[in-house]
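Subject: Sanity check before I submit

Could someone independently write out the structure tokens for this chain? I want to compare against mine line by line before I put it in a report. The sequence has 134 residues.
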Amino acid sequence: MGAAIQGIKSIMAILDNIITPNTPLPPIDKMVISLGMRNRPGVSASRVANNIIARKSEAGIPPVPSEEDLRMERIRAEEIIRELQTNAKIVVVIPENAIRTTVYTFTPAGATPTGYGTNELPYIGIAKGYGIIR
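---
Independent answer below. Compare away.
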């Protein structure tokens, strides 16, 4: 019996790989990320659940869901969002010249700027980054 289960699992893995091949994600242009992502509102379990319920009529499911259906869709959406927030990979772009540093010399007259730099030694927390969840 164990060999039969292993055989079925192997066949399922092969079929899954054919249907959804494990290919690397294509790169995203940094301008697309920088310009388009900063205005997004972020993920919302309520919005996902509402969209699923609204689209059920497209699949021929009655448009008026039961209380159990509403709760289940909310739980499903919460779990999807939790998975994305804990395990998804993010591609982040820190725009050019976003990190600025100034070097000061302290003299009896006070602090005098003596040098400037941009993005050569990034400091955590100073620059903003925009990303796309993949």
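---
OP: Matches mine. For the report I'm noting this point. The chain has a mean pLDDT of 74.
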